[in-house]
Amino acid sequence: MQLIDGKYRFDGGIDPLDLCKTYGTPLYVYDAAIMRRQYERLTQAFPYPKLHIHYACKALTNLAVMRLFRQWGAGLDCVSIEEVQLGLLAGFPAADILYTPNFAGADEYEEAVRLGVKINIDALPMLENWGLHHRDVPVCIRINPHLMAGGNEKISVGHIDSKFGISIHQLPHVLRVVESQGLRIEGLHMHTGSDILDVDVFLRGAEILFEAARKFPDLQYIDLGSGFKVPYKTDDIETDVEELGEKLSRRFTEFCAEYGRELTLMFEPGKFLVSEAGYLFARCTLVKQTTSTVFVGLNTGLNHLIRPMFYGSYHKIINVTEPQFKPRIYTVVGNICETDTFGVDRRIPEVVEGDILCFYNAGAYGWMMASNYNSRPRPAEVLLLDGKAHLIRRRESLEDLTRNQIAV
User: Fold this and answer.
1) Is the CB of residue 323 less than 8 Å from the CB of residue 9?
2) pTM strictly above 0.90
3) Which entry of 20, 140, 284, 337 is annotated as an active-site residue?
């Protein structure tokens, strides 16, 4: 979305204010062109020929979005059996879906076997049980490399105290289980966190997996997870995926020569692919002056975009209605009966009641982490594709809130 002649416009001349008028607010809008740009940027960054990108759909599981990534050639990374089922509905072949749950029950794994998707095991007890029931089903193993990486502790998942993965120090135990039960290990996997800037973190993690991989002779792929940082502010720093692609492709090629055959190199980005493509539009309901603060209140809250409160994440906020007004300093808050503050001391063109404000970087974990807290419905979703706006999820209603309730 760009400011053209004093007004914000999406590619193709689509007016975001018209979208808000047509579909109401709050409103999530996704730009398919940005998603494709991010996908192609990543695939083109790696000269290694056997690269496969799996879209981490927990970032945004709307079927319309998932189908786009399938059309562009991506596989799918799923963390629940429901995501697997959605992936199949979106048309992904079972062989292109990697199921990577955490503390899921045995019944979910059984369903994954029935559906025929790739299975990633991240706990020794589950691995020990696998040979008792599904010795003929190959699996991937998720390794915890004990690397502290990510934007903050809440999104760092590869450290020593993480609940994710099997500790690299438990590899001897893993090997005993694999040998004693005759398990077929087709892949190794790791994921260290989100918002990783240092390319060397990925390279160090790769070396840890390479060392482990030498002990598994039948591998087909190595999955290095994701965690690429995207920019949140003007001139913000981001992961240099081109540098990573060049360095890792060279090292992966060397490792495959040592291993004896060419393996598939896999990544599973979510935020990198959809974060910048998403916008959340909301209407100002009130401007409130207190002794020291001017609050801009919106008709949305942590029930629709919880990341600033949950992760302390930064989202750029603009005034779409009056972008040329003189900036003032505001604290932007929501309408939920909690302290749901989106931004403190933000310079935003002067806001009056009824103005439409927009949050950037709302494509990943925005709608997906939304709730009905305070009994407020979740927003509609619109996809911009080939110069046209498509409603891909209706706004919830009171009927939706009561649909599954049972009177007694």
Assistant:
1) no
2) yes
3) 337
pLDDT(292) > 80 = yes
Burial of 258 (0-12, 13-18, 19+ CB in 10 A): exposed
| DSSP designation for 147 | -
Cross-strand pairs, 193: 156
* Domains contained in the chain, CATH given: 2-30+277-402 (2.40.37.10), 46-273 (3.20.20.10)
The rounded distance, in Å, linking the Cα atoms of 273 and 107 is 31
Residues 309-337 have a mean pLDDT of 95
Strand partners, 291: none
Is residue 337 part of the annotated active site? The answer reads yes
Element (H, E) at 7: strand 7-9
SS3 of 215-273: CCCCCCEEECCCCECCCCCCCCCCCCHHHHHHHHHHHHHHHHHHHCCCCEEEECCCHHH
- 238 — pLDDT class (breaks 50, 70, 90): confident
Give the gyration radius of the chain's Cα atoms: 23
What token pair was written down for 263? 């393996």
